[in-house]
Write a structure and sequence with these properties.
38% helix, BirA Bifunctional Protein, domain 2, 3 domains, 8-stranded mixed sheet, alpha+beta, RNA-binding, OB fold (Dihydrolipoamide Acetyltransferase, E2P)
RNA sequence: UCCGGCGUAGCUCAAUGGUAGAGCGGGUGGCUGUUAACCACUAGGUUGUAGGUUCGAGCCCUACCGCCGGAGCCA
């Protein structure tokens, strides 16, 4: 944290210069100034008052601090009466260590200046629904849970870039406006470009391959856009992707790079974001179990697994477990409803109401799972070689392991034209997907690229693609073509997984989802 | 696009087809150590929209709108 440290003077209480104190201190640093008079500025996050003492909880972005205003400081005390939630203010006071203060330190206020009295703040300290919170995303960001997520996101992005910078990669910014592409045009957002239709990029890869031929090891980090009409907890229409591309690298090397990156992210979070993960209630044991190398299997092995009795009995066990859970929850619901009727105290009622809501929500979830499980069993048992793996299949596979799992060698028919077929078995390509544990889905997709001009052109023809539009891309195979490959990592999915979030919408400051563009 | 769920006060939620309620938040007053403070009082409603069934609809039926979750597709 940067503050005016060089000019900071710690002024002992009672010093005549007290009133000239302009030593702004960040709340995170209060512990260094116990017994001194300091100034703090921030927003009022919570307040309580008795007749003769008021407690103000101030947030300044670095932390939270309880400010105590006693009635024997009449000027300041009078001002506390007008304060509303999220009002901005500055206070001057003495830092004290006190067990009763959240965080262990508090400020005994001498002066209080109001910067702005906030209008009635829509977000209370009580529970809100997601629609309401999403409509107030610009304010929701101020809540401790959201700031914790944003800090973890920041730290992980820092670690991603450091990972590649330290390995000699060069950052390449790829264009976001791209000409009409044959590949998956239905999932691209069209943009009017001086009268011509162009599209928002869904990957920087083709451009990155060009740059890899110039610089050897490159990566891009930027937003990508998918117009898929997906309304699930794993999808955004605008999300950030980290894509490395490496010249002379073949599939095994790409896989090693991918697992080293993800391992580094997990290690970073566990080391540097303990407080934030704790605040989110993230159980860290599953993250701590992760170690290199990550398990690997081929698509064909996954198909065999899906057909196995192992998976069948696991899904049957899931069904029994879900039904048992549902029974438990219904009993819990009935019990809580009865207790609710008999509850006298308000706080008891409130607590029970909250329990009721949680139980009802989980019941809906378990019911959904029970509805879907027969379909999962059916699709696993009848899964035919050549189909693409769906989210259900991925989840089934990932549950066999404690770490992210790398699946390679998919049928070429379900993968992109630029992926290189396996010389040992041309039905499959040299690709990799990495599936996160705990049902968070695919976090990485990548491959070794086809480096032969004629093979690439043949694949483009098969896909019915316009050769002219990709002349420049094919050129890379005409001037010193080399084996190369890379992958893309979905930043938000990684953040959601590491934070243990139920929904991806909280991983990005202003999520763009199907049907939601504001704020 | 398909399947399921939900829509009641500013917010979170109650309410057998029979007088629409509570808590929080707001307002007023009280309280010298609060931790989602507490206590008392108070204001606050076209039950998403439009039809229908019924003596009577927040509740039942139909359509539409909105939101949530899931499938497909993907990172």
């Amino acid at each position: 944290m940067i503050h005016s440290a060089p000019r900071l003077r710690m002024i002992p209480v009672g010093d005549d210069e007290m009133n000239n104190a302009k030593s702004w201190v960040h709340i995170a640093d209060l512990g260094k100034h116990v017994g001194c008079l300091v100034s703090v500025r921030g927003w009022l996050q919570a307040h309580r008052s008795s007749g003769k003492v008021a407690f103000l909880q101030l947030r300044d972005g670095s932390g939270f601090c309880q400010c105590v205003v006693a009635a024997d400081v009449p000027d300041a005390f009078a001002k506390t009466a007008s304060l509303t939630l999220e009002s901005s203010l500055t206070v001057v006071g003495e830092v004290r260590a006190d067990q009763r203060a959240p965080g262990g330190f508090e400020l005994l206020v001498r002066e209080l200046d109001v910067i702005h009295i906030a209008a009635e703040y829509p977000i209370s300290r009580k529970a809100h629904g997601t629609d309401f919170l999403m409509n107030h995303r610009h304010l929701w960001l101020r809540s401790p849970r959201q700031t914790a997520i944003l800090r973890i996101r920041h730290r992980l992005i820092q670690a991603m870039r450091a990972f590649f910078d330290e390995r000699g990669f060069t950052l390449i910014d790829t264009p976001l406006l791209t000409p009409g592409a044959a590949e998956g045009a239905g999932t691209l957002f069209p943009v009017d470009y001086f009268g011509d239709p162009v599209y928002l990029a869904q990957t920087g890869q083709l451009y990155l391959e060009s740059a890899a031929m110039a610089l050897g090891k490159v990566y891009c980090f930027g937003p990508t856009f998918r117009a898929e009409k997906s309304k699930t907890r794993r999808h955004l229409t605008e999300f950030w992707m980290l894509e490395p591309e490496v010249a002379f690298a073949e599939l095994p090397e790409i896989a090693e790079l991918a697992e080293a990156l993800v391992m580094e992210l997990v290690t970073t979070a566990l080391r540097d974001c303990q407080a934030e993960l704790a605040h989110l209630g993230r159980e860290v044991a599953p993250l701590q179990k992760i170690a290199l190398p990550f398990p690997r299997c081929t698509y064909s092995e996954v198909v065999d697994l899906l057909h196995s009795g192992q998976v069948r009995s696991q899904l049957e066990a899931d069904m029994v477990a879900a039904e048992n859970r549902l029974g438990e929850l219904r009993a819990q619901l009935a019990e809580a409803e009865e207790a609710r009727g008999g509850a006298r105290k308000q706080w008891q009622q409130e607590r029970l109401d909250q329990t009721l809501q949680q139980v009802r929500e989980e019941i809906r979830e378990v019911e959904t799972r029970i509805r879907n499980l027969p379909a999962h069993m059916e699709s696993a048992a009848t899964f035919a070689w050549g189909q693409d793996l769906g989210g259900d299949e991925e989840t089934i596979v990932s549950r066999q392991f404690d770490a992210p799992v790398i699946i390679t060698h998919y049928p070429k028919t379900v993968k992109a034209f630029y992926m290189k077929p396996d010389p040992q078995d041309p039905r499959v390509v040299l690709n990799l997907d990495m599936i996160a544990p705990e049902g968070y889905g695919e976090i990485i997709g990548g491959s070794q690229r086809e480096e032969d001009e004629h093979a690439l052109l043949a694949r483009m023809d098969e896909e019915g693609m316009d050769r002219a539009a990709y002349e420049w891309y094919v050129d890379l195979r005409r001037y010193g073509s080399v084996p190369h490959g890379g992958f893309g990592l979905g930043v938000e999915r990684v953040v959601a997984w590491i934070c243990g979030l139920r929904h991806i919408r909280e991983t990005i400051p202003f999520p763009r989802l199907m049907g939601r563009l504001t704020p």
